[in-house]
Amino acid sequence: MKGPGIISCLLWSFALAAAAPMSTSSTARADIVIAIDTAAQRMTVSVDGSKRWTWPVSTGARGHLTPAGSYRALRMERHYVSKEWDDAPMPHSIFFTQRGHAIHGTSHTKLLGRPASHGCVRLDPANAARLFQLVRSRDLDATTVTVN
Q1: Digitized pLDDT (tens) for each residue of the chain, 148 residues in all
Q2: I want to staple 121 with a disulfide (CB 3.0 to 4.6 A). Which of 91, 103, 105, 128 is the partner?
Q3: ∠ CA 105-67-56 to the nearest 5 degrees?
Q4: 25 CB-near residues (< 8 Å, 6+ apart)
């Protein structure tokens, strides 16, 4: 009795290869895009291309600009204090540059909507917590921060 022929083995391999992407697509990670518009002092958060939230922010004041560009989120810290700026609290920090720029909550909510930070992106504390939880519930590597 002969085993399966080469054609049968090839067909079986192609069938498995074709089925593999279908089985992993249901577990695909959600891409999170955090778009910061420094001119408008607004942040828009999108998940898989659908806009979820738009919030006022405070980016860098004159002399302390928030760096423009596209970044991957690097790390997250629930409770962080600035080592550079008088131990200023930076709750729910999402760091996006190696130099220490982060998106984080602030107690200076009256300044939201205008440049007021030392280069970070400040948010209302409740919004910072909401964003932190979203990024934490997904994949940090799937989070992009764009600043323009």
Answers
A1: 455 554 444 334 434 344 333 333 334 456 999 999 999 999 999 999 999 999 999 999 999 999 999 999 999 999 987 777 566 789 999 999 999 999 999 999 999 999 999 999 999 999 999 999 999 999 899 999 999 9
A2: 103
A3: 40
A4: none
Helix (H) or strand (E) holding 148: none
Classify each residue of 77-95 as buried b or exposed e, where b means 16 or more C-beta atoms within 10 Å of its C-beta: eeebebeeeeebebbbbbb
| Tokens matching residue 75 | 């790390």
Strand ranges for the chain from DSSP E: 32-37, 42-47, 50-56, 69-72, 75-77, 93-95, 102-105, 121-123, 143-147
Question: What is the dihedral angle through the alpha carbons of 7, 12, 17, 22, rounded to the nearest 10 degrees?
Answer: 140
Six-digit token pair at 49? 């291309």
Contacts of 50 (CB under 8 A, 6+ apart): none
